[in-house]
Design a protein that fits this description.
globular, twelve-stranded mixed sheet, 283 residues, four-stranded antiparallel sheet
């Protein structure tokens, strides 16, 4: 079963490998943070993987052993980003054609151990997982020592030249898909995105919106935060202000499938979808 803001649903999925991290990491977002969201042909794409909160956080190097997917999509073709272990920024490659570039990163499975139930409750409340606390009690799970598995599923949209083109569904277990191109369409009246889970739209899913002025980089003092929910078709309209960079976050909480439940006897599993993009000033 998984929790969004709707009744519980039964699911199944394939497994990944595991690694250990801290409660702070699972409580925060991971996003792809390009040095520049708009570049010219043959200019190098450079982007960090960041983990943090309020659209500010530390960088993570490229670690092949912690990565399940590391790709970019251009005009219907997909290429591996590759790179060397330890690369900072994690994403470095040449953009050799004009259009909308879609970068996709998917982590392996990590775990977090809760020893304070209040931290789990805060996570559930923040992400609006209706019914999760009641399900925890009904399953007679411990409230002072239990494990959650989690994985990250991030995308970023970068304009190369005119930035023309469309976002694509890359097939991650959960993902955010832009239905409007913020680089060559006027989205100041709202930008539509769709949230998918297991290849189907997620209705009534919470989408958190983080926005910061263009050019501020990894700074949080001027970040604004908003929340919207998807409709029955999994579509949400993101309020847009020109001259801002955006980071979207949508999370699934569910009972772990058998392959993940075997990892340190995990009793919960969370899947974090993320998308970053920019809306230039004057759009």
């Amino acid at each position: 079963m998984h929790f969004t803001n709707s009744p519980l649903l039964k699911i199944a999925m394939a497994s990944m490998v595991t690694s250990l991290t801290t409660i702070d990491a699972v409580s925060h977002e991971l996003w792809i943070d390009p040095e520049r969201f708009s570049i010219t042909i043959d200019e190098q794409v450079r982007a960090d993987l960041r983990v943090g909160e309020n659209y500010a956080g530390g960088t993570s190097p490229y670690l092949p052993t912690r990565t399940e997917r590391f790709e970019f999509y251009f005009g219907g073709t997909v290429s591996n980003i590759g790179g060397r272990a330890g690369d900072r920024p994690a994403i470095q490659f040449e953009a050799q054609q004009e259009g909308l570039l879609v970068i996709a990163y998917e982590s392996d499975v990590s775990t977090v151990r809760y020893t304070e139930f209040e931290k789990f409750k805060a996570f559930v409340d923040h992400k609006n997982f209706e019914g999760a606390l009641e399900a925890h009690a009904a399953r007679k799970l411990s409230t002072d020592d239990f494990v959650e598995t989690y994985s990250r599923h991030a995308k970023s949209l970068v304009a190369v030249g005119d930035g023309a083109g469309s976002d694509v569904a890359v097939g991650m277990i959960t993902e955010i898909i832009a239905l409007d191109n913020p680089y060559n369409v006027d989205v100041t009246q709202g930008m539509r995105v769709q949230v998918n889970y297991l290849g189907s739209p997620r209705a009534n899913a919470q989408v958190e919106i983080y926005a910061r002025p263009n050019g501020e980089g990894n700074a949080s003092q001027n970040v604004t935060v908003d929340t919207v929910f998807t409709d029955h078709a999994g579509i949400a309209t993101i309020p847009i202000q020109a001259g801002y960079d955006f980071m979207l976050d949508a999370v699934v909480l569910r009972e772990p499938p058998p392959e993940r439940a075997e990892i340190r006897d995990a009793v919960w599993d969370s899947l974090w979808a993320n998308m970053s993009f920019s809306v230039p000033m004057g759009r």
